[in-house]
Amino acid sequence: MKTPIISALCILCFSHLFSQNIGADSISRKKITAISITQSPKIDGILDEEIWKNAPSATNFIERRPNNGKPADESLRSDVKILYDDTGIYFGALLFDNEPAKIARELTERDNIENDDIFGITLNGYNDHQQSLEFLVTPAGVQADAKLTNDFGEDFSWNAVWFSAVQITENGWVVEMKIPYSELRFPKKQVQEWGINILRLVNRTSTMYDWNFVDNKKGSYMLYDGVLNGIENINPPTRLSFLPYFSTYLNSFNGKTDANFNGGMDLKYGINDAFTLDLTLIPDFGQTSFDKSVLNLSPFEVQLQEQRPFFTEGTELFSKGNLFYSRRIGGHPSRTPILNADEEFIEMPDKVKLFNAVKVSGRTNKGLGIGFFNAVTEKMYAEIKDVNTGEIRSEVIEPWANYNVLVLDQRFSGNSSVSLVNTNVTRDGNFRDANVTALLFDIRNKKNIYQYFGGTKESLVMNGETKSGNESSAGFNKVSGTHRFGANYFMRTKDYDIGDLGYYDRTNFHSINTNYSYRYLQPKGGLNALNYNLNVSHNRRLDEDLFTQFVIHNSIEMQTKNFFSFGGGLMIWPLGENDIYEPRTAGRHLDVPAMINPWIFINTDNRKKFRINTYIDYYAFDEKGRYQLIYQLNPSYKFSDKLRLYYDANFNYQNHDRGFVGKDAADIFMGTRNRFTVENGISSQYTFNNKMALNLSFRHYFSQVTYKGFSTLNTDGSVSDTNLFTENRDGTFNSWNVDLRYSWWFAPGSQLTLLYRNAVGSYLEESRIGIKENFTRLFNEPMVDNISLKLTYYIDYNQAKNWLKKKDKQ
User: Fold this and answer.
1) What is the DSSP string of 780-795?
2) Element (H, E) at 426
3) What separation in angstroms does the CA of 104 have from each of 585, 639, 704?
4) pLDDT for position 805
5) Which residues contact 212 (CB under 8 A, 6 or more apart)?
6) Would you call 799 helix, strand, or coil by DSSP?
7) How many angstroms separate the CA atoms of 352 and 770, rounded?
8) Using alpha carbons only, what angle is made at residue 717 by residues 574 and 666, rounded to the nearest 5 degrees?
9) What 3-state class would DSSP assign to 192?
10) What CA–CA distance (Å, rounded) separates 359 from 310?
11) Do residues 221 and 27 lie in contact, with contact meaning Cβ atoms separated by under 8 Å?
């Protein structure tokens, strides 16, 4: 089965490697020339220097949405000028508005733009339509920056150090920006030619404009950038920066209080014009957001969101193929010691310590992206005590371990790529090692109408014995026009295992999937937008062939002229499901009856002070009394341009659900259960100015499960009532978290953060507890109280060098 897929991959890749560029070259591209200067303008939002007057303007913006292709009205004219010197590139923008009092300027934290007008620049130093850097600023002076890629869209985890200032005037607003070359990537040439686009969002009409027209019929945003000329003979400075940190923590838990101090550093170095080295030494992630813990009754691990900045920033190359789940690094230890009689744990670490980590990534001017990631975690021990003798022994639960990711990603023809990915985990001693290799392709035809994609992945696990597995896929999509469609085949063998450095759930299946969609490309009637989707899939067990599922899913989304969004869908399992995972035993399955699932959503106008997003999801099974109801309510209110409050409520009720509870040598036991889950979250932000903010984040999660009866699983997937299983499986899980954080960006790239954290959790082996008693029991559990202070200071090598020169002269 693998050979035809690999052969097809090679044929497709090599047949397209030498094809001409897809429609990118035929797309009309505006051009603008940057003017060289010797004296830098002051970044104050006032374009009063003489040097601004002689620079040509980028004008005649065109609407991207909702009326794609319509010229911008003269009352909202935008004039943008560009300068450069040996340190960076400068932008001056006059953004005219005939109603300046209505310019939206809500204050938020960096990278967290809300109801604001926006001015932005996207730059592609290699002019290849593949990856751009985006720099945004609001009338409140709030900055946001992101990497733009075809695979992942906007990645706001990427952060750069750049400078901007804004002014509101009687004619609109003015933006002045400087982006240092140290934050950009471009080839080492005497004469530069960059891809560029300039965007503007007018919030009160929810209208987006671009300097170079972006056609929504087909292709990605980056295909439609213009050309920036005029940058010549520059001598960019050394790209080297340091981010040292100092932190202190005061922790209180169960009557014990302790304090600790930490210090370390991140380093970023431009190896050459294309490649950057990122290094973290003795990292400290103590102020990352709390994980949203849940009561998990499924056969699969809960996938947690990455919160650590080093692992979120600039990782788009390492995300190729979904083989890199960074939470594995510094996660749970590999082993849990087996206690002898009369032994107990004195210390059992639940997290592995990260020693250091390094990333090298970049892309050559021939379109070859290279990413190298390496991390080392420390050796960890469990301390175990014999309660009779008092003797203490240590056992290794995690050895020194090395985690490695290597990615080669060749881009060509504007929107196409071929990728080779390898991940490797090597642990010291007789612990488990693993290796995964993937070959992937994503090809677009010359006119950017069709996409061909797929690949193959091989996993290898060494743990006393060697186990190998495979995942392969191939498919195509029509990616342009009003009517779009596609189909793909996906296969994963039962021994496929990427769990040492990746995340996966289902194995031993294959599926055929088809899709069709219809969309409005221009507003029609009373609607700004309409998008209809139909997906059909057929799934089977791969080893020991068995039908598992046939799914039909329809959905439609609409937005009115008043920016009121609504829609819904209908998912159907007309033949039910043979669930091959819930029994937790190879070769067995559980019958799940046919199901119909209607759902709807309503989102009010997000420009308003008060807005509500709500969602209702109902699953009705062809079995008496069996259903599931999900309801979500997410309102928010803007009290002022400085204060906003969010509320998130999620309710989930399952009646007469059925799931695994245990097994013995003879039987697999299933339980019929009712489950009720409520999650409440409140978050708010008070922003003093564009550099200082106070944030509150609260979450309470409650989930209880009550078992109504037990049964044994028959070989045909049906169940039979039994009294052989007598264990208690009722349970109530509570999780409470409060974070109160003060942040101050006191200098570019430098931050002071003061955090107070309160957390408590409990699991009780009973259910149907009253609300009052539930909270009483929860708050009788030992609480974690934590106060931390962290200071990070950005040091640019070139600035530090000038500081030293000034001191020498003195």
Assistant:
1) HSPPEEEEEEEEE--E
2) strand 416-427
3) 57, 14, 44
4) 62
5) 28, 29, 30, 62, 196, 197, 198, 224, 225, 226
6) helix
7) 38
8) 165
9) coil
10) 9
11) no
8 token code pair: 């097809």
Residues in the chain, overall count: 810
User: d(Cα 574, Cα 746) in Å, to the nearest integer?
Assistant: 60
Helix (H, G, I), strand (E, B) or coil at 568: strand
**What are the structure tokens assigned to 201, written together?**
């969002």
Cis peptide before 66 (omega within 30 of 0): yes
CA dihedral 487, 492, 493, 498 (to 10 degrees): 160
List residues bridging with 619 in a β-sheet: 628
Rounded to two decimals, the pTM is 0.88
Calpha distance 565→440 (Å, rounded): 36
pLDDT of 9 reads 33
Which three-class secondary structure string do you get for 51-95?
HHHCCCEECCCEEEECCCCCECCHHHCEEEEEEECCCEEEEEEEE
- CA-CA-CA-CA torsion sign (212, 216, 217, 221): positive
What 3-state class would DSSP assign to 676?
A: strand
Q: Over the chain (810 residues), what is each successive 10-residue block's mean pLDDT?
A: 34 34 62 94 93 92 94 95 94 96 94 93 89 94 90 82 95 96 87 95 95 88 91 86 93 89 91 87 82 92 86 82 93 89 89 91 86 94 92 94 96 86 95 97 90 97 94 96 97 96 95 97 94 98 97 97 96 97 96 98 95 97 97 96 96 97 95 97 94 95 96 97 95 95 93 95 92 90 93 88 62
User: Nearest to residue 407, comparing CAs of 376, 440, 375, 434?
Assistant: 440
Return the pLDDT at 809: 57
pLDDT for res 128: 83
